[in-house]
Structures are given as structure tokens and as C-alpha cells.
Amino acid sequence: MQNGPFRLLGTGPRAAARQAAVLFAVAGLLAVIGTLNDPARTGRLLTVAGCDLALATIGSLLPWRRLHRHAPALLGLAGFVVLGFSTWSFGGVAAGTGPFLVLLYAWAALHFPRWILTAYALPATLAYLLPLVVTGQPPLVLGSAAVLMPIALAVAFLIEAQARRLRDERDRLSRIEQWRAAMINTLAHDVRTPLSTVHMALEELAETATGPDASMIGAALRQTTRIARLADGLLDLQRIDSTGHLKLDRARYPAHLLVKDVLTYVRDDADVRFEVDEDLTVYVDKQRFEQILMNLVTNALRYGGPPVIVGFTRDAGGDRLSVRDHGPGIPDDLRPRLFGQFAVGGDQGVGLGLWIVRQLAAAHGGQAVAEARDPGVAMVVTFPLPP
């Protein structure tokens, strides 16, 4: 309903016209049903139904996107004319005209500015009053317009103000999102060129370095490689945010070696241990797996307490990667929200690490959860079994 050619929800001229088409189609159907209750006015009621269905057809089929954005407001004017004819057809009974008039005003308030709602006041009042005058209704009935029209206009103004505020907020969020996406793309792209230069310089130094220098240069090379992968990860996560999809390059890897390689990026003085069966083979994207594990270990070292224990096991549900710390733990009410964007954060970070873990786990077809331990907490990521 939202994405097809007859989309009803949304904003813009096409959505406005489609919604009006639905209103007129319902009004036409009610007029047809009205012939069963009042056979004497069958001809007039069928004329009303024909007019309503004609407006519904126009609202559905015209290429409204090519016209002015306020063009569908003309459907409202035509609707007031049909409302007046409908009141006359029912012999001056406005029981159905009043509510539908307010409904038309509410529809217009969702899509058009206040000046159009004000311009509607005269034709709407005439559409309501003239049939009552022509059919000789008493002054008390005529006086109902003095109550109905201000109410219709007030309701429309309230809806228009709220709709305008929501549109402004949506536009503001859209601009923020565009700025954020541009910033991430720029950061990820611009960091590659200087990083490549640093990496090449370190490789040249590594060829002649010996002893402690070689060890330090090797560590620096590993970290520059990691930063490059993080830049690629930023771009991938931006694609996840905008399209919801991330292409993976999955293959079979020994879990023991995967974990061991990732932990070489952890500082030497960190109390991190791993318990992984050397015979376990997992089916993952190696680069994304490294991002997942590195984020979890870094998070455990930053917010938890030593020792940090990395485990990898298999059961009927899949392969389970767990990173447990022995810190103070996490409150029960916070654990379900840990993997949201900016869920935690603070002075030491912005709260994106666990959100990245969840996105990458979902891309693999798995999930990420936080499980309570005594003491501490375990971050658990599940991966589907190898095919």
C-alpha cells in the first residue's frame, strides 16, 4: 500500500490525491446504499454516487506528481459541490454532510497550508447552507452552520499545525542524517590516503629493523591495518544504515586461529584469555568477525573488569562467541538496550560499538545479546552453523 502506484500513506500531491480518492469512493458507496432506504430519490442519489466515483477516479489516475503540489486541493472544492448536491438530494437533511465536510477539512489540513484552509471557508459554507435554504429548512437548522464551520476550521488549523511541525521535524532529521552520512563517508575516505603512506613507510622500516624496534614496528603495522579495516567498516555500516543490507564474504575458518589473530591487536598488558576448541570451524566473514570480536573485547576492557575471557562453542542453535568480563555487571533494565545506537556511551565513547556488533551479527544471520554472569556480564554473538 505504501510503495505501489496506489500508495495511500505519505505526503506530497500523489498521496493527497489518493487519500481524497478513498474518501470520495466511500461517499459514493454510501450514496448507492442510500437508494435502498429512499427509493423515491434513487435518481438523485445515483447522480451523487456517480459524481463521487468520478472524483475518486480522477484522484486515482491523474499524474499528480507532474502538477503543482497544491493541485489536489481542487478535489476538495469539487467535493464541497458534491456535498451540497448530496444535501439537496436528501431533501435538506445534512446529517451526513456535516461530518463529511469536517472530514474533507481534516484531509486538507494534512496536506495543504493554512491559506488554503481559509480559502475553503466560503465554498464550504455555501455548500452547507445553500441546499438548506433551497429546501426551506427552518432558521434553527440554518444556524447550525454557525457552529459547524468554526469547528471544522478550528480542527483543520490544529491538524495543519501538527502536520507542519512533523514535516519540519522530518526535514530537520533528514538534514542531520545527510550531514552524518557525508561526515562518515568523508572520514572513511580521507583517512585511507595518509594511512597508506604511513603503512608503506612502516613496511620499509620493518625490512631493516631488528630486536625491539622490529617488535614495535610490527605492532604499528597491525594497528594501521586495523584502522584501515575500521574505515572500511564505517563505509559498510553507512550502507547498512541506508539500505539495510551488507554484502558478506563468508568462508570456513578455524575459530581458534581467528580469535588468536584478533587478540594480537589487544595491548600486551591486558588480561585477556581465550578458550576455543582447536577443531571448531566457523562460517563467517573474516573481516566482520574481527570487527565484532575487537569491539566486544575493547568494550569489556573499558567498562568491565579483568580477566576478560573469550569463548567459542557450538550447540544445536549455532556457533556462540562469548566475551565475558568480571566487572560489576550491567543492570537488568539496561541490558536489552545495550545494542542500540548511542545506548550507553559517555566520556570514553559514543555508544556505537555494540550497535555495530548487532548489525554485523544480523548480517551473518545471527544475533547479539548480553547475558548476566556472577560476577560480570557476557556479550554473546551467535552465528548460523556452517552449511
UniProtKB/TrEMBL annotation:
Subcellular location as annotated: Cell membrane
Transmembrane segments: 15-33, 76-108, 115-134, 140-159
Gene Ontology CC: plasma membrane
Pfam families for this protein: HATPase_c, HisKA
Catalyzed reactions: ATP + protein L-histidine = ADP + protein N-phospho-L-histidine
InterPro entries reported in the protein's UniProt record: HATPase_C_sf, HATPase_dom, His_kinase_dom, HisK_dim/P_dom, HisK_dim/P_sf, Sensor_HK_Regulatory, Sig_transdc_His_kin-like_C
Residues spanning the signal sequence: none
Domain Histidine kinase: 186-387
Molecular function per GO: phosphorelay sensor kinase activity
Entry's EC annotation: 2.7.13.3
Keywords: Kinase, Membrane, Phosphoprotein, Transferase, Transmembrane, Transmembrane helix, Two-component regulatory system
Protein name (Swiss-Prot/TrEMBL): histidine kinase
Organism, scientific name: Actinoplanes philippinensis
Phylogenetic lineage: Bacteria, Bacillati, Actinomycetota, Actinomycetes, Micromonosporales
